Amino acid sequence: MQRGWKMALSGGLWCCRRVLSWVPVLVIVLVVLWSYYAYVFELCLVTVLSPVEKVIYLLLYHAIFVFFAWTYWKSIFTLPQQPNQKFHLSYTDKERYENEERPEVQKQILVDMAKKLPVYTRTGSGAVRFCDRCHLIKPDRCHHCSVCAICVLKMDHHCPWVNNCIGFSNYKFFLQFLAYSVLYCLYIVTTVFSYFIKYWRGELPSAHSRFHVLFLLFVACMFFVNLVILFGYHCWLVSRNKTTLEAFFTPVFTSGPEKNGFNLGFIKNIQQVFGDNKKFWLIPVGSSPGDGHSFPLRSINESQNPLLANEEHWEDNEDDSPDYSGDSSSLAMETET
Questions:
Q1: Which InterPro entries did the record assign (predicted)?
Q2: Which positions ≥6 away from 80 have C-beta within 8 Å?
Q3: Which pTM does this prediction carry?
């Protein structure tokens, strides 16, 4: 009976946590909906008198708004990608690992598994990176998110403002969302400012619209400053081919720590996120190269490149072990084990 109450309480707390996690997203959505009303109705339809100016303002505004909303949607609802089953311990290996009491033997089990996988990063002590919650060997740049309770490929951070973990599957969308957010705020500031001055001087009569226009400019400026800083930081990360986690914790490779281990040069670094085809760079469709499990390394030549050297080995062992999934049960809340 007591155990049942504990399980019910735990389930209730989990549900409350899931509901509360959507509060930041709801706040952003409400602010955006209000900004839409304030700009379209109170500014363009009520305050702006010139028909030509109305049309131009509305067309440009909606063009930016569509991409802004589209990228925000993709950032929220594109699920973070988890490691392939190849990285999970098989049932036999899991039994061996958990029943083994000698740490050195446990480490050797992981080492033997890692030899079959394109894994080149290690822990600070040089051991194979292993997640004891998901029961898998972590691919390079993969980390466990304690908020999502899963291992995420090329994890950057967990963002409460999109209620999602930002990683390989949606980092491009997150960057585009930041870019279009900056453009959205900048457009509002530049088009509203002249009417803000007119309202401030008392040249326009509508008191109701005055409140919306003045407050719209204030909110847009506030968000613009914060978003420019955040977007600039992530642009710097992309130019160095780093994640937020890698900026704080230097990756350790088999040869030792190397903060620029994934840095391939400015253009190639951008292509690692947005892809080779430039026509997809501004559109929120998936174009990041690779599968998120392995990445080109700065210090490895073509014959040793993990994307090439392990390709045959990877395919040869595609069906060696049965499926065994771990449990699939913030700005930056970097949480990993």
A1: Palmitoyltrfase_DHHC (IPR001594), PFA4/ZDH16/20/ERF2-like (IPR039859)
A2: 145, 148, 150, 152, 153, 155, 164, 165, 166, 167, 168, 169, 170
A3: 0.84
